[in-house]
Amino acid sequence: MTDAPHLSNETPGGDWADRMEQTVLDAALGLAPRLGWNSRMVRAACAACGLSLGDEELLLPNGARDLAALLSRRHDDRALAALADIDAKSLKMRERIAAAVSARMEAGAAELEATRRCAAFLALPPNADLGLKLAWESADLLWNWAGDTATDWNHYSKRAILSGILIPALTMRWFDGREAAEAFVAARIENVMAFEKWKAGKDFDAPLKKAADVLSRMRYGARIPQ
To answer: In this structure, what DSSP letter does residue 86 have?
Structure first.
Protein backbone atom coordinates (compact mmCIF):
# COMPACT_ATOMS: atom_id res chain seq x y z
CA MET A 1 0.00 0.00 0.00
CA THR A 2 2.89 2.38 0.54
CA ASP A 3 6.32 3.09 -0.83
CA ALA A 4 8.11 2.54 2.48
CA PRO A 5 10.40 -0.52 2.55
CA HIS A 6 9.58 -3.12 5.15
CA LEU A 7 12.26 -5.70 5.87
CA SER A 8 11.00 -8.66 7.85
CA ASN A 9 12.59 -9.30 11.22
CA GLU A 10 13.09 -12.86 10.00
CA THR A 11 15.41 -11.70 7.23
CA PRO A 12 19.06 -10.80 7.76
CA GLY A 13 19.32 -7.15 8.73
CA GLY A 14 15.60 -6.79 9.31
CA ASP A 15 16.00 -5.73 12.96
CA TRP A 16 18.66 -3.20 12.04
CA ALA A 17 16.56 -1.78 9.21
CA ASP A 18 13.48 -1.38 11.38
CA ARG A 19 15.42 0.33 14.15
CA MET A 20 17.34 2.56 11.78
CA GLU A 21 14.17 3.63 9.94
CA GLN A 22 12.78 4.94 13.22
CA THR A 23 16.10 6.55 14.19
CA VAL A 24 16.31 8.39 10.88
CA LEU A 25 12.65 9.41 11.21
CA ASP A 26 13.38 10.90 14.64
CA ALA A 27 16.24 12.90 13.14
CA ALA A 28 14.04 13.99 10.23
CA LEU A 29 11.37 15.32 12.57
CA GLY A 30 13.94 17.63 14.12
CA LEU A 31 15.21 18.83 10.76
CA ALA A 32 11.97 19.17 8.78
CA PRO A 33 10.78 22.45 10.33
CA ARG A 34 13.95 24.12 9.06
CA LEU A 35 14.74 22.18 5.86
CA GLY A 36 11.28 21.11 4.72
CA TRP A 37 10.25 17.57 3.75
CA ASN A 38 12.55 16.83 0.82
CA SER A 39 15.68 15.03 -0.33
CA ARG A 40 17.92 17.55 1.42
CA MET A 41 16.22 16.76 4.72
CA VAL A 42 16.55 13.01 4.11
CA ARG A 43 20.29 13.31 3.42
CA ALA A 44 20.82 15.45 6.52
CA ALA A 45 18.83 13.05 8.71
CA CYS A 46 20.73 10.04 7.41
CA ALA A 47 24.06 11.80 7.86
CA ALA A 48 23.13 12.68 11.43
CA CYS A 49 22.59 8.96 12.03
CA GLY A 50 25.97 8.06 10.53
CA LEU A 51 24.62 6.62 7.29
CA SER A 52 26.50 6.94 4.02
CA LEU A 53 24.75 7.78 0.77
CA GLY A 54 24.80 4.09 -0.13
CA ASP A 55 23.18 3.15 3.18
CA GLU A 56 20.55 5.84 2.64
CA GLU A 57 19.64 4.50 -0.79
CA LEU A 58 19.36 0.98 0.62
CA LEU A 59 17.28 1.94 3.64
CA LEU A 60 15.09 4.59 1.99
CA PRO A 61 15.08 3.94 -1.78
CA ASN A 62 12.17 6.38 -2.22
CA GLY A 63 13.67 9.03 0.01
CA ALA A 64 11.21 11.51 1.48
CA ARG A 65 8.26 9.41 0.36
CA ASP A 66 9.47 6.51 2.50
CA LEU A 67 9.86 8.78 5.52
CA ALA A 68 6.36 10.18 4.96
CA ALA A 69 4.95 6.65 5.01
CA LEU A 70 6.90 5.85 8.17
CA LEU A 71 5.56 8.97 9.86
CA SER A 72 1.99 8.15 8.88
CA ARG A 73 2.35 4.66 10.30
CA ARG A 74 3.83 6.05 13.51
CA HIS A 75 0.83 8.34 13.86
CA ASP A 76 -1.51 5.41 13.16
CA ASP A 77 0.16 3.42 15.96
CA ARG A 78 -0.04 6.40 18.31
CA ALA A 79 -3.74 6.85 17.57
CA LEU A 80 -4.50 3.18 18.18
CA ALA A 81 -2.58 3.31 21.47
CA ALA A 82 -4.76 6.24 22.58
CA LEU A 83 -7.92 4.44 21.45
CA ALA A 84 -6.96 1.33 23.42
CA ASP A 85 -8.31 3.03 26.54
CA ILE A 86 -11.76 3.47 24.98
CA ASP A 87 -14.39 0.73 24.91
CA ALA A 88 -15.63 1.07 21.35
CA LYS A 89 -18.65 -1.15 22.04
CA SER A 90 -19.93 1.37 24.59
CA LEU A 91 -20.26 4.03 21.88
CA LYS A 92 -22.62 4.52 18.98
CA MET A 93 -20.98 4.02 15.62
CA ARG A 94 -20.86 7.74 14.81
CA GLU A 95 -19.22 8.32 18.22
CA ARG A 96 -16.66 5.62 17.50
CA ILE A 97 -15.68 7.20 14.20
CA ALA A 98 -15.54 10.67 15.73
CA ALA A 99 -13.26 9.39 18.50
CA ALA A 100 -11.09 7.48 16.03
CA VAL A 101 -10.61 10.45 13.71
CA SER A 102 -9.91 12.75 16.66
CA ALA A 103 -7.23 10.38 17.97
CA ARG A 104 -5.64 10.19 14.53
CA MET A 105 -5.62 13.98 14.20
CA GLU A 106 -3.99 14.44 17.60
CA ALA A 107 -1.38 11.77 16.92
CA GLY A 108 0.74 14.21 14.96
CA ALA A 109 0.35 17.18 17.31
CA ALA A 110 3.52 16.38 19.27
CA GLU A 111 5.65 17.21 16.21
CA LEU A 112 3.29 19.67 14.60
CA GLU A 113 5.76 21.67 12.50
CA ALA A 114 7.35 18.57 10.99
CA THR A 115 3.91 17.06 10.37
CA ARG A 116 2.88 20.20 8.52
CA ARG A 117 5.92 19.90 6.28
CA CYS A 118 5.11 16.27 5.58
CA ALA A 119 1.47 17.12 4.81
CA ALA A 120 2.57 19.81 2.36
CA PHE A 121 4.89 17.29 0.71
CA LEU A 122 2.09 14.74 0.30
CA ALA A 123 -0.17 17.43 -1.19
CA LEU A 124 2.20 17.91 -4.13
CA PRO A 125 0.89 16.28 -7.35
CA PRO A 126 3.79 13.77 -7.63
CA ASN A 127 3.01 12.50 -4.13
CA ALA A 128 -0.78 12.55 -4.20
CA ASP A 129 -0.92 8.81 -4.89
CA LEU A 130 1.02 8.09 -1.71
CA GLY A 131 -1.17 10.44 0.31
CA LEU A 132 -4.28 8.59 -0.84
CA LYS A 133 -2.76 5.20 -0.03
CA LEU A 134 -1.78 6.32 3.45
CA ALA A 135 -5.24 7.78 4.10
CA TRP A 136 -6.82 4.48 3.05
CA GLU A 137 -4.47 2.59 5.35
CA SER A 138 -5.36 4.85 8.28
CA ALA A 139 -9.08 4.54 7.53
CA ASP A 140 -8.79 0.76 7.47
CA LEU A 141 -7.11 0.68 10.89
CA LEU A 142 -9.68 3.05 12.39
CA TRP A 143 -12.62 1.08 11.03
CA ASN A 144 -11.11 -2.12 12.40
CA TRP A 145 -10.85 -0.49 15.83
CA ALA A 146 -14.47 0.64 15.53
CA GLY A 147 -15.50 -2.99 15.11
CA ASP A 148 -16.26 -3.10 11.41
CA THR A 149 -16.28 -6.69 10.16
CA ALA A 150 -17.77 -6.15 6.70
CA THR A 151 -16.18 -8.20 3.93
CA ASP A 152 -18.56 -7.20 1.15
CA TRP A 153 -18.80 -3.93 -0.78
CA ASN A 154 -19.37 -2.06 2.50
CA HIS A 155 -15.76 -2.80 3.47
CA TYR A 156 -14.54 -0.66 0.59
CA SER A 157 -17.21 2.04 0.66
CA LYS A 158 -16.67 2.70 4.37
CA ARG A 159 -12.94 3.12 3.93
CA ALA A 160 -13.37 5.29 0.86
CA ILE A 161 -15.75 7.59 2.74
CA LEU A 162 -13.54 7.79 5.82
CA SER A 163 -10.47 8.45 3.67
CA GLY A 164 -12.37 11.35 2.14
CA ILE A 165 -12.98 12.74 5.63
CA LEU A 166 -9.48 12.07 6.97
CA ILE A 167 -7.50 13.92 4.31
CA PRO A 168 -9.16 17.34 4.75
CA ALA A 169 -9.60 16.80 8.50
CA LEU A 170 -5.89 16.19 9.02
CA THR A 171 -5.03 19.17 6.83
CA MET A 172 -7.33 21.40 8.87
CA ARG A 173 -5.89 20.07 12.14
CA TRP A 174 -2.33 20.85 11.09
CA PHE A 175 -3.00 24.29 9.62
CA ASP A 176 -6.24 25.61 11.16
CA GLY A 177 -6.21 24.05 14.63
CA ARG A 178 -8.09 21.41 16.56
CA GLU A 179 -11.39 23.26 17.01
CA ALA A 180 -11.89 23.85 13.29
CA ALA A 181 -10.93 20.27 12.47
CA GLU A 182 -13.27 18.76 15.07
CA ALA A 183 -16.16 20.88 13.79
CA PHE A 184 -15.43 19.78 10.23
CA VAL A 185 -15.39 16.10 11.21
CA ALA A 186 -18.66 16.39 13.16
CA ALA A 187 -20.36 18.01 10.16
CA ARG A 188 -19.05 15.43 7.72
CA ILE A 189 -20.15 12.52 9.91
CA GLU A 190 -23.60 14.06 10.13
CA ASN A 191 -23.65 14.39 6.32
CA VAL A 192 -22.70 10.74 5.90
CA MET A 193 -25.33 9.53 8.37
CA ALA A 194 -28.01 11.60 6.60
CA PHE A 195 -26.95 10.24 3.22
CA GLU A 196 -26.99 6.64 4.48
CA LYS A 197 -30.50 7.15 5.85
CA TRP A 198 -31.67 8.69 2.56
CA LYS A 199 -30.32 5.94 0.35
CA ALA A 200 -31.58 3.10 2.54
CA GLY A 201 -33.66 0.78 0.40
CA LYS A 202 -32.53 2.34 -2.86
CA ASP A 203 -30.52 0.31 -5.35
CA PHE A 204 -28.89 3.07 -7.42
CA ASP A 205 -25.50 1.88 -6.19
CA ALA A 206 -26.07 -1.71 -7.36
CA PRO A 207 -23.32 -1.59 -10.06
CA LEU A 208 -20.78 -0.34 -7.53
CA LYS A 209 -21.91 -2.96 -5.02
CA LYS A 210 -21.50 -5.73 -7.57
CA ALA A 211 -17.98 -4.61 -8.48
CA ALA A 212 -16.99 -4.31 -4.81
CA ASP A 213 -18.42 -7.76 -4.06
CA VAL A 214 -16.13 -9.21 -6.71
CA LEU A 215 -13.15 -7.41 -5.18
CA SER A 216 -14.14 -8.73 -1.77
CA ARG A 217 -14.29 -12.32 -3.00
CA MET A 218 -10.88 -11.90 -4.57
CA ARG A 219 -9.47 -10.48 -1.34
CA TYR A 220 -10.93 -13.12 0.98
CA GLY A 221 -10.51 -16.11 -1.27
CA ALA A 222 -14.14 -16.89 -1.99
CA ARG A 223 -15.06 -18.40 -5.34
CA ILE A 224 -15.98 -15.85 -7.99
CA PRO A 225 -18.84 -17.01 -10.26
CA GLN A 226 -17.78 -17.30 -13.89
So the answer is: S
